[in-house]
Amino acid sequence: MKYEKVAFFRFFGRLNDFFKDNERVKVHRFTGFQTVKDRIEALGVPHVEVSFIILNGKPVSFDHMVNDGEFFCVYPEFQTIEIPSEWLVTPRYEGEPRFVLDIHLGKLARFLRMLGFYAFFGEEEDEKLCRMAVKENAILLSRDVGLLKRKELVFGYYVRNTAPKKQLVEVVERYDLKRWMKPFTRCIECNTEFEEVPKESVKDRVPPKVYRIFNEFVRCPSCGRVYWKGSHYDHMVEFIEKNLN
């Protein structure tokens, strides 16, 4: 019979979103030799959500082998507190955020594109999604905890809300996206950045009334869609002012 071990985990901040109970300390029983990363994910928290882990006042890595009776404090990333880089078990994302979303978050992807962010979605296979996120140095957004536990994944986030507009507000706040926003610079269908085009070049591509009223047009170089600052633009401006200010 294998000897049963007991370890204790205290999760902080939004990491508690992964638990239905209100117990402040999780008691975890296990056998054999296990890393703290394995034990944290066994409790239900994907590694990509963990920023640093403290044991007896000192940081430990994901590779730390859990011993009987140890008490771990597990923290999410803090945007307002500077944490020493050597403490981090997952790196901080640097630069303008890029996103890969699972197939169930299509509306959120379009909203992110509306704000000017690279946001790929449509792939159904978990392995390909993770591979693309790593290749594109992007953050994988999903409501599938299992997907976010894949070992090859570096950056990922579990979207808590189910309504697309609330999801957008959540992601904007989580990654401080307001400072990076460039609304109406990317095609919401193709994820490609717009290019400005002369008015004369779209004469046969837009309704005659639109051509008479508007002088500025942009085009998606991938799908060829032409955009102008009409009622759809006004609706998007209203949406941004209402939800993100």
Please tell me the overall pLDDT.
93
The CATH topology of the largest domain is Ubiquitin-like (UB roll)
Strand content: 15-25%
Q: Tell me the number of helical segments per DSSP (H or I, 4 or more residues long).
A: 7
CATH class of the largest domain: Alpha Beta
Q: How can the largest sheet be summarized? A: 5 strands, mixed
Number of domains: 3
Give the distance, in angstroms, between the N- and C-terminal Cα atoms. 60 Å
Radius of gyration: 22 Å
Secondary structural class: alpha/beta
Helix content: 10-25%
- Named at the architecture level, the CATH assignment of the largest domain is Roll
| Bulk shape | elongated
In CATH terms, the superfamily of the largest domain is Beta-grasp domain
The SSE order reads: EEHEEEEHEHEHEHEHEEH
- The poorly predicted ranges are none
Count the strands?
12
What does this structure look like?
This protein has 245 residues and is an alpha/beta fold. The chain has 3 domains: 4-87, Roll (Ubiquitin-like (UB roll)), CATH 3.10.20; 99-180; 195-243, no CATH class. Helices cover 24% and strands 20% of the residues. The chain has helices at 36-42, 106-114, 126-135, 145-148, 164-174, 208-213, 231-243, and strands at 4-11, 25-31, 52-55, 58-60, 71-75, 99-101, 119-121, 139-142, 156-158, 195-197, 217-219, 226-227. The strands form 3 sheets. Strands 2-1-5-3-4 form a 5-stranded mixed sheet, with no helix packed on it. Strands 7-6-8-9 form a 4-stranded parallel sheet, sandwiched between helices. A hairpin with a 2-residue loop joins strand 3 and strand 4. Helix 2 packs across helix 5. It is elongated and about 80 Å long. The chain starts with a strand and ends with a helix. 26% of the residues are buried. InterPro entries: Mut7-C_RNAse_dom (IPR002782), Ub_Mut7C (IPR027798). Residues 97-239 form the Mut7-C RNAse domain. Residues 6-81 form the Ubiquitin Mut7-C domain. This is Twitching motility protein PilT.
